[in-house]
Amino acid sequence: MNILLINPPNCGRSIPEERYGITSLKQIFRGEPLALEELAGNLLEHHVRILDLKAEPDGLHQALLDMQPEVVGLTGVTCEANTMLQLAGTIKENCRATVVVGGIHASNDPAFFNHAAVDYIVVGLGKKIFADLVTALERDNGKDPSLSGVIRTNPGGQLNHGPRVRNSVDDLVMERPPAYGLVNRYRSHYVLEKLGISMGFVASAYGCPYSCSFCSIKGQTGGSYLAKSIDEVIRDIGLLGEVPVIRLVDANTFGDVKRAAALGRALLESGLKKQYLADIRSDTVVRHPEMLREWKKAGLRALIIGFEEIDDASLAAMNKANKAGVNTEAIAILNDIGITIVGDFIISPEYDEDDFDRLRSYFGAHRIDLPMITVMTPLPGTSLYTSHQPRIINHNLDYYTLTNAVTPTKLDEKRFYTLYARLLADSHQNVRL
After folding, report:
1. Domains (ranges, CATH) in the chain?
2. Could you tell me which of 355, 350, 343 has the C-alpha nearest to residue 375?
């Protein structure tokens, strides 16, 4: 079958830009569409093309004309969901393809895509499920397949969800690597922006066993932590050829410490000579500094840590199973080892002037090489969304970029965004990557 896989264009909107002319907070998503590369890697029996509209924003009509796809797959995060529906409508107007949507928003809120322009919704990781769906569509000549993890849309009615999918390692289809070659024409777009260095994406694990109230990851794996084998991770890194920097896109590369230590040793022995960016919890840093010293030898350049907040009460309110003191200790350890820290922080719409000053003082007192500051956003599918739903004043998902307040701000709105932009600018003055 002819299968077209589409990565949506940059489409998130910005309240501070539109209302107050503050452009420095607008979020731009970059990086290769690894989810689609993984899907394509399990479709070897078919003719597959990946269209990355972030790199080629005007490419849809020509791709439909050239390929005449029989199946089109769309994926995206929450702030891209409206655009995914618009793309689905355009596809239906221009060809007779079966339209399938998947990804994190589809897994957390499948009802959003119960629309006439969409035929099927895939929930969960999708690599195996999507291939099974394609096989069924080809075999059964239009008869609706009955597959776990696939929902047939029912515009105007209720979706028949079936049992909730809980993915397993079988769904990773590890023996079939991502089809990195399908985005070769876009490779020059995938760069580490601050340094202008080419960067590739590799997944070594999926999911997270923790239940932070703001995090939507659980919707795809049901709380499971699913790791690829070390051999497959090394293989995938090697497939990226001359790309010098590898972003391990896992929610937590070090979720299984024994495996993570073995992976670090394997990277060191592989002779790949890459640099790595990965995610870790601060309590893992504190418990296993020697493992990270070994990873440093293997090429670990930077660690992304979700510090989120700077006091225990705020962390507890997020159901973040960690303590502020542990975060502080982790910062000192990584500074000593010489690993760059990319620190994720979440500011609440209820911040006042003192809260912004408090966070600014924290950045002054602790060496965090690149603070990443987002706004607490109740994403559909999270417990935060359930608890905050009555307070949400902006339901347009275009604004769910994590840089807009979709619940009321305590400060005057313009003042809130002005202080947010100032804090971001001040914290990025001496970025070290």
Report:
1. 2-152 (3.40.50.280), 190-427 (3.20.20.70)
2. 350
| Verdict on whether the full-model pTM lies above 0.90 | yes
What 3-state class would DSSP assign to 380? coil
Report the amino acid identity of residue 424.
L
Q: What angle do CA 265, 267, 270 make, to 5 degrees?
A: 110
Tens of each residue's pLDDT in the chain, 433 residues: 999 999 999 999 999 999 999 998 876 667 899 999 999 999 999 999 999 999 999 999 999 999 999 999 999 999 999 999 999 999 999 999 999 999 999 999 999 999 999 999 999 999 999 999 999 999 877 677 888 899 999 998 988 876 666 788 999 999 999 999 999 999 999 987 766 789 999 999 998 888 888 888 887 888 889 999 999 999 999 999 999 999 999 988 999 999 999 999 999 999 999 999 999 999 999 999 999 999 999 999 999 999 988 888 888 988 887 899 999 999 999 999 999 999 999 999 999 999 999 999 999 999 999 999 999 999 999 999 999 999 999 999 999 999 999 999 999 999 999 999 999 998 887 666 6
384 contacts 216 by C-beta, under 8 angstroms:
no
75-114 CB burial, b ≥16 within 10 A, e <16 = bbbbbbbbbbbebbeebbeebebbbbbbbbbbbbbbebbb
DSSP, collapsed to helix, strand or coil, labels residue 289 as: helix
Contact 54, 7 (CB under 8 A): yes
* 90 Cβ contact list (under 8 Å, min separation 6): 60, 61
How far, in whole angstroms, is CA 266 from its chain's centroid? 26
Amino acid of residue 391: R
Question: Under a CB-based contact definition with an 8 Å cutoff, are residues 122 and 149 in contact?
Answer: yes
Total Cβ atoms within 10 A of residue 116: 13
Q: Identify the CA nearest to 91 among candidates 75, 70, 77, 108.
A: 70
